[in-house]
Amino acid sequence: MEMNRMLGKAFTEDEVRIAMKQMYPLKAPGPDGMPPLFYQHFWLNIGEVVTKTILDFLNNGLSPPNFNETHIVLIPKINEPKRLSEYRPISLCNVVFRITSKVIANRLKKILPSIISDTQSTFVHGRLITDNILVAFKAMHHINQKRSGKKGEMALKLDMSKAYDRVEWVCLEKIMEKLGFEDKWRKLIMQCVTSVSYSIRINGKPRGHIVPTRGIRQGDPLSPYLFLLYAEGLSVLIQKSVENGELEGVFVCRDDSIIFGKASIEECDTLQRILAIYENASGQQLNRVKTSLFFSSNTSREIQEEIKNRFGAQVIRQHEKYLGLPSLVGRNKRNSFNAIKEKLSKKLAGWKEKLLSKAGKEVLIKAVAQAIPTYTMSCFKIPDSLCNELTSMIRNFWWGQKHDERKMAWLSWDKLCAPKEAGGMGFRQIKQFNLTLLAKQGWWLQTMQDSLLYRLFKARYFPHTEFCKLQSVIIPLMHGGVLLAANTWLSKELVGMWAMGILFRSGAINGCQLLPHTRWCLLGNFCMLTHGSVS
């Protein structure tokens, strides 16, 4: 009731202005021909008219002509695409409508943590995408290590074909009704969804006029949140089957649709029935070519073949990636992370052919080269040898070396990594940055104790103590690092981590006392150091 009251309030000028400022300035323009930067720069001149147009739509349902007109452009998914299926359609909406959609999304996302199951981490406030990466990796590691027992286990990775395009509008409205959204809010959402029209942009000019009867758009700020509501139906069906005893020990990571469960014919039939119900009701269609199965070693060949034939999916030794990261890391960790080196090598090879100033090289190193491994390092402890190779490649690029030629390095890399105020260039030390990102995961575990990730790791590794009090229990973190290392880093390096943008207050945090020997330096006003206010 309280949520509906919050959603049903009249929209205000402040909400419109906030949404406008949140738009990425150089997003591709839609039919209006202007990027968000134009509206942000000239808001004092056009803000009143734009705000009135948006509020008339949000509060009164009045929309001007062509308000929801959309241009579609095709972005290739792979190099040298030859089929239409190898392109990804991106919808370019009018910026005024995008601001409108952003206003609605900003209000909707406030209540999502209360209605979306905790197996979904992306696009939900207070959850991190890395949560499900760690949870899924732990489950995959468990299945990979299970070699005994009568019952095998499996991981089923689903791939829904054209998921956004197959959203049935009637089903979307029914799901919102079941979730308890009031009529006024549902009508506003459906007006945004159903009033759309498309034109295909070919050689820069719009062609045709398409009026769809289903689907939501890639590129609409509201679409990801609506799809979360839509996909909640599958989670509810699976949860009901678990409660009814039809499924045993099933867990769903929704971000990339991977289901963990027992490898039995009965559970296979139940999952098939659930998927069939979901497909028929929602219009979603399982892409069986990309759907894959992974079994534990104690699953018999007969069971594997039977389940494989029933799902029509391929059996693999391991899922290559989950949410962009390896789902399993073997003893040879370098093989799992070589893609980082290859990607960096391709980038540097292209840049070396260009005449770049030192300032240009600095920007490329900081904005691109050193950013490539960041996502992986937020979950994995990358081998030191690979860190050294990445550093060597970046260092050679900085000093202008090509291929096997050698040039003089006029300053050590450690000095180049020092802050500019200390005479350096402010480059990152990859090893230390990796530890810092892992420490961030430790800090997340320490502070977000209601998260699914914390509950899983606590039950598995430290049921009788707190994470910050671990001293001798080694906990594998993505097979390459340890949570204990993150905890040690947090304990010993709290003072220095203010430089990473984290503010620590002395005292107890969730029952964890800061070390008594920690020395707090009087470095002046913190907000002056970070160029922003800190509350």
From TrEMBL:
InterPro entries in alphabetical order: DNA/RNA_pol_sf, RT_dom
Domain Reverse transcriptase: 56-315
Pfam families: RVT_1 (PF00078)
Entries under PROSITE patterns matching the protein: RT_POL
Signal peptide: none
Annotated protein name in UniProt: Reverse transcriptase domain-containing protein
Organism encoding this protein: Lithocarpus litseifolius
